[in-house]
Design goal:
Layout (H helix, E strand, L loop, with lengths): L12 H11 L5 H15 L6 H25 L1 H6 L15 H23 L1 H22 L6 H9 L2 H10 L4 H24 L1 H6 L5 H25 L11 H23 L4 H26 L1 H14 L1
Length: about 325
């Protein structure tokens, strides 16, 4: 493999810490934690135990970090070939693959131990299944072999809400699976918008992302259809499940309308990378605000306010 391990040393301790921190791809993790937290708030009906929340988010952070480090090890060859990623810790030689693997395993062990000791076995097993699915199914089998890689592989990023729900209740009901479905259907529009922006990079290293194999127009059509699927799915939390209420429903409608508009504009201009970038950025904001609405909607204060408003009008 190209760029397996380049011999180069960090200059000081802080640079070593920074290199290992970069291996975890920290910018990806907050979005996973937001979906975990939202699930916990809904499951606890707005009254989350702070210690349980802290341990669950810490364990989730370590599990996600472990998966990203393993991904960096596996993809070190294509990271070396792309100028955009050649400066990453492993292809640049600042971290050796064997050391990165030890780091990833330590993170996974600590994560599972935290869940097992302080939360419950189910949440720990779900967190570990996220790592396994991301590495074995997405990174190993799908990423380099099929343009549908992110569709199936998106299940890995959909697991955090299951972890959060299990951490509160010890089991899984319909609501966390709807949260799973929302993120699963949200992932293709989100990731393919990014893929449209960096299509040439994927083509350079022969990674069969959708825009590379089927072109921009086909990719944008599929982004459109997945957007039309995810928006109705968000309302299932309101009806028939009843896990969220009116405030979340209004926010889901508002955000969904903007999402559809941005996707429609991209559909009319599939070669416009600025529109793809706009959709990509909004997709992140969409999920963050949607989860925030879930949290606020679950709070007892919100329910009391709604009841007071109904009584006042009545």
């Amino acid at each position: 493999m190209i760029g397996t391990d380049v011999v180069r040393r960090n200059e000081n301790f802080l640079q070593v810490v920074r290199s290992y921190y970069q291996l975890t791809k920290p910018r990806i993790i907050p979005l996973l934690l937001i979906t975990t937290a939202a699930s916990m708030w809904i499951a606890s009906e707005g009254e989350v135990d702070s210690f349980r929340l802290f341990i669950t988010l810490l364990g989730g952070t370590l599990a996600a970090a472990s998966a990203q480090v393993m991904n960096c090890i596996y993809d070190r060859d294509i990271d070396y070939e792309m100028l955009r990623t050649r400066a990453r810790p492993i292809p640049s030689g600042r971290v050796q693959s064997r050391h990165a693997l030890i780091f990833a395993l330590v993170l996974a062990v600590i994560s599972f131990s935290l869940f097992l000791v302080y939360i419950n076995l189910l949440s720990g097993l779900l967190a570990m299944s996220g790592i396994a699915f991301y590495m074995l199914v997405y990174t190993h089998f799908l990423k380099r072999n099929t343009p549908q890689n992110i569709v199936i592989g998106g299940a890995a990023g959909s697991i955090p809400p299951l972890v959060g729900w299990a951490a509160v209740t010890g089991d899984l009901s319909w609501a966390p699976w709807i949260l799973f479905a929302i993120i699963f259907l949200w992932t293709p529009p989100h990731f393919w918008a990014l893929a449209l922006m960096i299509k040439d990079d994927y083509a350079q290293v022969n990674v069969p992302m959708m825009p590379v194999i089927e072109g921009e127009e086909s990719t944008v059509r599929q982004i459109w259809w997945y957007t039309l699927l995810v928006i109705p799915c968000t309302f299932l939390l309101v009806y028939p499940v009843g896990a969220s209420g009116w405030l979340y429903g209004v926010m889901a409608l508002f955000l969904g309308a903007i999402f559809i508009k941005k996707t429609w504009l991209l559909k009319q201009n599939p070669l416009d990378k600025d529109m793809a970038k706009s959709l990509f950025k909004f997709s992140i904001l969409y999920l963050m605000l949607l989860c925030t609405a879930m949290v606020v909607d679950s709070l007892p204060f919100t329910h009391q306010l709604f009841t007071a408003m109904v009584n006042f009008v009545g």
